[in-house]
Design goal:
five-stranded antiparallel β-sheet; Mannose-Binding Protein A, Chain A; alpha+beta
Length: about 200
């Protein structure tokens, strides 16, 4: 009889009534993963540049101490420019002391990236979405030249896309590029005269 009972169990499988007696397992993977995603988004938002419109055609990033021109080279020319023309554009701005400054320059690749974030939205000259602050003028180019040249291949310079967030090495003669210019904001290390006097007694 025992043999028949064993064969019956193997043929019919587990008794359905016994399934309810098994301890339930709580799945917490989704909830934990969701919490991590929320924390990541919050962290990313906190790290966004703190842009300030200066009201003179410039925008300051108080986190990086950089000042940017509110529009880009497309607003000046209405077409794309080469890497060499991008340098000429900087020189022109410096000659006329745009916004009162004569130290405008092309940005580096990391500086260019600092403007980019998928949570920010603006639009380029073709109406396509670019991911920079809406404080910047709409209708500009969708990329920017940087001052960085490719080692051992000086005919190439680095360019950054505000559509995809990617950077590429582009031939300097490429005419379908644009540039956003920047300058370093020098912090005044001001202190009262009395403090300077007391320093003479410090050892």
């Amino acid at each position: 009889m025992a043999e028949d009972k064993d064969s019956k169990t193997s043929d019919e499988g587990i008794d359905p009534e016994l399934v309810g007696d098994e301890p339930e397992t709580e799945w917490v993977g989704e909830e934990e993963w969701g919490d991590e995603e929320e924390e990541d988004v919050a962290l990313a938002e906190e790290e966004l540049p703190n842009f300030v419109d200066n009201g003179d055609g410039t925008i300051s990033d108080t986190h990086s101490n950089l000042m940017w021109k509110k529009d880009d080279s497309y607003a000046e020319y209405g077409y794309g420019i080469t890497w060499f023309e991008a340098h000429d554009y900087c020189e022109m701005l410096n000659d006329k002391k745009f916004a009162g400054y004569d130290d405008w320059r092309l940005s580096g690749i990391e500086e260019s990236k600092s403007l980019f974030s998928f949570v920010q939205s603006n639009s380029d000259k073709d109406g396509a979405e670019i991911h920079i602050s809406d404080l910047f003028e709409r209708g500009g180019g969708h990329n920017t030249w940087t001052y960085e040249e490719k080692p051992d291949y000086q005919q190439y310079a680095q360019k950054f896309s505000y559509v995809t967030g990617n950077d590429i090495w582009e031939h300097k003669d490429n005419e379908y590029s644009h540039c956003r210019v920047t300058r370093d904001v020098v912090q005044d290390e001001w202190e009262p005269e009395w403090r300077k006097d007391t320093k003479t007694f410090e050892r």
